[in-house]
Amino acid sequence: MENKERHIDCWNNCLQIISQIIEPQQFDTWFKRIRPVSLVDSTITVEVPSLFFREYLEESYLDIIKKTLKRVIGADARLNYIVKPAGSTSMRLPEGPGNPPVNKAISINTYQPSGNPGPFVFPGLQKIQPNPHLNPVYNFTNLVTSDCNKLAVSAGVDISEHPGKTPFNPLFIFGGPGLGKTHVANAIGLAVKEKYPELVVLYVTGNEFKTQFMDAVNVHNKLTDFLAYYMKIDVLIVDDIQDMSGQGNQNAFFNIFNHLHQNGKQLILTSDRAPVDLQNFEDRLLSRFKWGLSVELTHPDYETRLAMLKARAFREGMNIGDDVLEYLAANIQTNFRELEGALISVAAHSALSREENSVELAARVTRKIVGEDLSTITIEKVQKTVCDYFNISRDILLSVSRKRQIVQARQISMYLSRNLITNCSLSTIGAETGGKDHATVLHACATVSDLMATDRSFRKYVTDLEHLLAPAAK
């Protein structure tokens, strides 16, 4: 009996050591789901849920695992993986919210509905327990971090460690739809509740705040209760604050903002546009939005989109091939929301129709989400076409290489991006071409124009590439 359970005892000893090294949340996510299978000589075999799971372990925790195994088993320790088999048409639907965080009860002053409270009227006390309205799925563990959201996530982690005590107050997160603003804001709230359970955290949308204010105004003396309620919050998250139009509710929010900020409480705001671009907002409120840190979420690149799809597929127990995930990542370039929708649709179609997951199925599903034309021109598509034409990698194209042919390919990609993509700024082109500034893009475009006028071979390069990209531009 002892012999049979040697592998279990060995792995439990490893887990005990690893749990002291990494964060508890990461340990729960990546190590609790590993099952020890056998221990033969110095080789321990474990079962992992998926191939992606194994790849992530090796990429992120290989050094820790090696050192731990050598400590427990010995210098000759080795680790073998078995990937848990999964049916090609099996699918586990997304889980429900689970156990959402709970706020403690708070006491607020409240007035009776009869008469206006005078200076000698003492309010009563009412105990209420605010629902934080945080989604447990939108946590930092489930958030893929890259250049598109790195600054916001870093600031969010710092805030969750010291809410109200950092320079990032308020934290103003802005960007287009589906780029992860709500996820980042929720993740901060969840992390705060995990570290400081006694703090009162509240997530509310701008439209909900506006509706609550209107309801309070329409009920006699309830505006006072409304203000008292919000002034008891320790971490206030307002999502889509651009919806908070109207002078009355802005005045109420101004007073709430001032009270919370002056008392060291944390404010987190999200918007679909930068503070300077918000319309119909009072100047005094806009100036306060700029007090802390304003950070933009940008469109994810191919690697980030692919990583998000792999992470979501793993989390939902989907057995989808890398070729399908790569196809989705390459053809849905707008935002995370559409990517997740396409992934769920592919898995659902496969499960319900008993059809194998394939690129052909992904293409059919994707066309219904993004339209018939999957060849909409983008900076990434321009760069890929240029790289294929000159037989170089995208990494080399975006590198700092000063080789003549690489520099010219890079300049052509910037020229074509500027001329073939509608509403694409020079700054955006530069940022996605190795972090260049707009002046570099202008210089590249001028250089390409000059060379096309004087060099027949160079002109043919550009013309060929324009013909390759022309169907996508129509």
What does it look like?
This protein is α/β, with parallel strands linked by helices. A five-stranded parallel sheet has the order 7-8-9-6-10, with helices on both faces. A three-stranded mixed sheet has the order 1-2-3. The radius of gyration is 27 Å and the shape is globular. A hairpin with a 2-residue loop joins strand 1 (35-40) and strand 2 (43-48). Helix content is 51%, strand content 11%. The termini are far apart. The relative contact order is 0.08. The protein has helices at 6-18, 24-30, 51-72, 150-161, 181-195, 206-218, 222-230, 247-262, 283-289, 302-315, 322-331, 336-353, 359-370, 379-390, 394-397, 404-420, 426-431, 438-454, 456-473; strands at 35-40, 43-48, 78-83, 106-110, 124-128, 171-174, 201-205, 235-239, 266-271, 293-296. Helix 6 packs antiparallel against helix 7 (222-230) and helix 12 (336-353) crosses helix 13.
In short:
With 474 residues, the protein is α/β, with parallel strands linked by helices.
Question: If you average the pLDDT, what whole number results?
Answer: 82
Q: Please state the CA-atom Rg, rounded to the nearest Å.
A: 27 Å
* Structural class determined from secondary elements: alpha/beta
What letter string, H or E per element, gives the SSE order? HHEEHEEEHEHEHHEHEHEHHHHHHHHHH
- Strands, count: 10
Q: Please give the order of strands in the largest beta sheet.
A: 7-8-9-6-10
